[in-house]
Amino acid sequence: MMNFALLHRQDGPLLIANVWDVSSARAAQASGYQVMGISSAAIAAMYGYDDGDGITFAVFHHLIVRLRACCPLPLTVDMEYGYGEGHGQIIDNLLTLAELGVAGLNLEDSHVQQGKRMLRILLNLHHY
Predict the structure, then answer these.
(1) For residues 74 and 87, what is the distance between their CA atoms, to the nearest angstrom?
(2) What is the mean pLDDT of residues 10-34?
(3) Residue 26 to residue 23: CA distance in whole angstroms
(4) In what order do the strands lie in the sheet with 16-18?
(5) Contact in structure between 18 and 39 (CB atoms under 8 Å)
(6) Cα–Cα distance, 20 to 18 (Å, whole number)
(7) For the chain, what is the radius of gyration of the CA atoms?
């Protein structure tokens, strides 16, 4: 696997392909991308939900497992507000993704509650 941190220190720009399933990940790799990323909106739409914690962590986790099994490119993910009700569950989810080899992730600065988006936190982590 390529070193995600080193990819940020290239002479040229780091282009990250937005993927939403195994087919798009394979297409990104075949097209020469060095990194793949997933957006929460693309994943939610693929499953027929609106963006904003519409899917469960179990569904999200399954997708990440499939992507990691089928494509060796470093993967950075947008995981909404962490797919958890409290900090403990969110941290557990983050650690689970790190164990799967996710290279980077973004947590939203807001959480959808009763149909309204509420400002919460902003966190961007990269596991090098």
Answers:
(1) 26
(2) 90
(3) 5
(4) 16-18, 35-38, 75-78, 104-107, 123-126
(5) yes
(6) 7
(7) 14
Q: What angle do CA 85, 82, 108 make, to 5 degrees?
A: 115
Which of 99, 28, 19 is closest to 65 using CA atoms?
99
* pLDDT, tens only, 101-117: 998 888 876 666 677 76
Instruction: Using the Cα atoms of residue 87, residue 47, residue 122 and residue 110 in order, give the sign of their dihedral.
Output: negative
- Predicted TM-score (pTM) of the model is 0.77
Residues in the chain: 128
Residue with tokens 């996710």: 102
For residue range 53-107, list pLDDT tens digits in order: 678 899 999 999 999 999 999 999 988 888 887 778 888 999 999 999 998 888 8
